[in-house]
Amino acid sequence: MNTATLSALWLFKQVQLDVVILEVGLGGRLDATNIVDADVAVVTSIALDHTDWLGPDRESIGREKAGIFRAGKPAVVGEPDMPLTIAEVASEKGALLQRRGVDWRYEVEGETWSFRDTAGALSHLPLPQVPLPNAATAVAALRASGLAVDDAILSAGIRDAMLPGRFQIISDAPRVILDVAHNPHAAAYLAGRLKNV
């Protein structure tokens, strides 16, 4: 996996991308992607997964995931019930912690949703195909990065973003849905979505 990460980073450098979004493969602290001095670090959620590598509980897993935080850089956390270890690591590293429900929040408003942080509010955002908490966390990270994105482009990105293998409808007759949910947290989310099908 380290070779694949290094190869990808080399390719990104060759084509001189303006923005690169890297997903940690496992945990964070010891992941190969952690060699990058990221402008923004993001922890979307903390679930009991890979406990043999990351630790037996959410506090241990939170500490591992927070290993991607950097001094003086935003650390956006989308987990509403954030383990204390995330705040501890952010403080130890001098990261600028931005927590869901404290520093930023979102709210469903009928067929749309709104987002609010210290920079202001965005309203009438389209409901995404991906989990709304993840979309809101992505908006928080984008705003924390300081990158200027037109509201219409942001709305289109939210509306059109999808993840193959995550509630992916591959056939309507018969209805066939693919989802790679592989832990209790993801399975609970999938069960909720299936109730509305």
Automatic annotation (TrEMBL):
Any single GO BP term: tetrahydrofolate biosynthetic process
Taxonomic lineage: Bacteria, Pseudomonadati, Pseudomonadota, Gammaproteobacteria, Enterobacterales
Protein name: Dihydrofolate synthase
GO cellular component: cytoplasm
Example of a GO MF term: ATP binding
NCBIfam families named among the record's database cross-references: folC (TIGR01499)
Organism: Klebsiella pneumoniae
Transmembrane segments: none
UniProt cross-references to Gene3D superfamilies, sorted A to Z: Mur ligase, C-terminal domain (3.90.190.20), Mur-like, catalytic domain (3.40.1190.10)
Family: Belongs to the folylpolyglutamate synthase family.
Keywords: ATP-binding, Ligase, Magnesium, Metal-binding, Nucleotide-binding
